[in-house]
Amino acid sequence: MDHFLYRDGALYAEDVPISEIAAAVGTPFYVYSTATLLRHFQLFDDALEGTEHLVCYAMKAASNQAILKTLAQAGAGMDVVSGGEYLRAKAAGVSGDKIVFSGVGKTVDEIRTALTGGIRQFNVESEPEMEVINAVALELGVVAPITVRVNPDVDAKTHAKIATGKSENKFGIPIARASEVYAHAASLPGLEVIGIDVHIGSQLTELEPFELAYTKVAELTEQLRAEGHNIRRLDLGGGLGIPYTRANDAPPLPVEYGALIKKTLGHLDCEIEIEPGRLIAGNAGLMISKVIYVKSGEGRDFLILDGAMNDLIRPAMYEAHHDIVAVQEPAPGLEQQPYDIVGPVCETGDTFAKQRNMPPLAPGDLVAFRSAGAYGAVMASEYNTRPLIPEVLVHGDQFAVIRERPSFDEIINRDTIPEWL
Ligand code: LLP
Q1: Is the bond leading into 28 cis (omega within 30 degrees of zero)?
Q2: pTM higher than 0.90
């Protein structure tokens, strides 16, 4: 459920008409709903009630300061994957002891930044990285809390580009080597081994892969404890999918996911951490775009929008489906017609949808891409010198621009000309 609903024929974000925001900020833009972000965070927090836990929002999904602050004020921790994200989380007021540092190749500088500013734990991805964290910790005279990310070799049954838990993926250490790697970690004086980390992929639409992975983590917990490690925290990653197609998608609910966690790991008396990103932000955001032209092609009509693949890359990159709806609600019974919905970028890949049924649309009409709050704005680029589009946050009947559209001068002046030119 989200807070983007039609009222009297017009699409609203909470209590604000989308058309009013469009008139104020111009198109295209992203708009997020505070109530939806908080609702989704709360669903996870409630799902783990009765178990010591922390929901660490995977801020890679949408990392605007205003979004982070909204979630942090509700009690969320943050999962970061770079020094930049770490600093963003800190700038939004998140304290170090609620920040988890994931990511496949942490650099010395990033490790130093986190150890200096405070960190809940590093989720270590490899033995070489473990040694570097140890060395930086010793240099700073601190002890770095760590988990090791294990790769359980489980098929997440999701798009190949976002599956991470198979042995051929670059993530974590093979679970079969865990014993050896944990013994190595325990021998390093700059590290304190506190738990195990696992993340098998994103946009999972079934619980079974989680169950397989978490069962392996439960077995590993007992084994490592028997080997003398004080395993007391389990970081279970993110990955729970969202319904991208309203009509017929029904992925498992956070409450069901929480019940599975309790069933597979509850008996171990560990603190549980989860790192959801998409489910918190995805359906809490829309991308709003305007029709520039309607062009009749050979046997098909194209809706040419002012939004493009540089603003929302998911369809081009993952063949992702986003529901696209007219901001002005079509009259009941109005006949729909198929359009190819495209952006103005000079690439065939700049196609959002093919032969998508839409009500008849004309230049100037607004459309909304649903489920665009996660991996939308954060993956945007300025390809074709198209400015990064603004982000807007709605809260009840208020809205605020939380990131401005840069001017062309700002974009151009970021380049510098060498003196020989
Ligand atoms: N934790 C770790 C270690 C991750 O790598 C990820 C996502 C998450 C948590 C959050 O997963 P979520 O709950 O959002 O599924 N750009 C792609 C998604 C990439 C996900 C990368 N890792 C997309 O647009 O579908």
Answers
A1: yes
A2: yes
